[in-house]
Amino acid sequence: MTPPRTVAQAAASVLLAGDPRDKIRAARRAARAWRAGALAFAFDVEMPDRPARPDRPELLPASRMPKRGRGGSERGRIAMLHALAHIEFGAIDLAFDMAGRFGAAFPPDFVADWFSVGADEAMHFALLDRRLKALGSGYGALPAHDGLWDAAAATAADPLPRLAVVPMVLEARGLDVTPATVARFEAAGDARSAAILNRIYRDEIRHVSVGTRWFESACESRRIEPVSEWKRLIGTYFRGAIKPPFNGSARDEAGLSRDYYAGVDGEGYV
Predict the structure, then answer these.
(1) Which of 39, 19, 41 lies closest to 29 in space, CA to CA?
(2) Where are the domains of the chain?
C-alpha cells in the first residue's frame, strides 16, 4: 500500500481502517509522518461520511444499551472499561477527522495538535483493550452505541460547532466523571485499571485545552465573542443536557473557564 503523502490522505487512512489494530497502526503512522515532515500540508481527498467499523461490537441505539452498573463487581468493571474503550476508539476518528476535514482553514499547528490527540486516543484504546483481555474479555465483547460519531456528523460543515460540541462538551464531561470512576476501581482493588484511567484523565485535560484554544482562536478570527457563541452553538447542535457537577479545577486547567458553563444548567463545581 502506498504511504499517505498528504495530511488529508493520512487522516483518511485512519478513518477508513475498520480493524482496531489497523486503526491504531494508521494513527501512529500518521502522527509519526507528520512529526517527520513527511506529509504535505494539502487536503486533496475528502473525509468519509462515516468511518469504517469492525464487525464487533454490535452498535445499538443509546436507548437500548444495557445498564452497566457502577463498576464494583468484575463484571461491572469490564462493562465500564468496554464502554470507555469504545469512546476512545471513536475518539481516534474524531481527532483525525478534525484535522483532515477542517485543517485547510487553520495553520499547520492545528493539524499537529489533532494528529497528536489522535495518537493519544489510539494509545488509550490499546491500553484499555489490553486490560480487558487481561480480565478475560476484549473490545467487541459487549454492545456499544455510536453517539460520538452522531455528534461529528451533525457538525461536519463547520469547525466551530465541532470544536464547541466534541472537545468542549463531550470530552470535558470525561473530566467531570473520571475521578469518581477511578475511586470506584481503587475501592474494588483494581489498581491497574485505575492507573490507566488516571493516565487517560491527564491526557484528556490537554485534549480539552486543545479544543478550547482552537475554538477561541477561530472565534477571534471571525470577530465573535467566544462564550456567547459557544452557548449559541450548544443550543443548536448539542442534543442533551449539560448537567453539573463540573470538575472546576480540571476544566480551569484545560482553559475551559467557568464563564462557559455559568447558567447553562445551574451551577455545581467539584
Answers:
(1) 39
(2) 59-261
pTM over 0.90: yes
Cα gap 11→206, rounded to integer Å: 21
Confidence (pLDDT) at 267: 43
Give the pLDDT band (50/70/90) at residue 269.
very low
d(CA 114, CA 37): 15
User: Is residue 15 within 8 Å of 48, Cβ to Cβ?
Assistant: yes
C-alpha cell at 200: 487517560
Q: Which three cell numbers stand for residue 166?
A: 466534541
Q: What is the DSSP string of 205-242?
A: HHHHHHHHHHHHHHHHHHT--HHHHHHHHHHHH--S--
* Residue 241: φ, ψ to 5°: -105, 145
Residue indicated by cell numbers 442533551:
240
Residue 4 and residue 34 in contact, taking contact as beta carbons nearer than 8 Å: no
Q: Which residue has the cell 452497566?
A: 68
Give the homologous superfamily in CATH for domain 59-261: Ferritin, core subunit, four-helix bundle (1.20.1260.10)
CB 246 within 8 A of CB 179: no
Q: Which amino acid is at 26?
A: A
User: Is residue 3 helix, strand or coil?
Assistant: coil
Cα 269 to Cα 260: distance, rounded to the nearest angstrom: 13
CA of residue 256 relative to chain centroid, distance: 16
* pLDDT tens-digit series, residues 90-133: 999 999 999 999 999 999 999 999 999 999 999 999 999 999 99
Residues 91 and 146: beta-carbon distance below 8 Å:
no
For residue 45, what are the CA distances in angstroms to 4, 8, 111, 162, 233? 11, 6, 15, 20, 28
What is the DSSP annotation of 155-185?
Answer: TTT-HHHHHHHIIIIIIHHHHHHHHHHHHHH
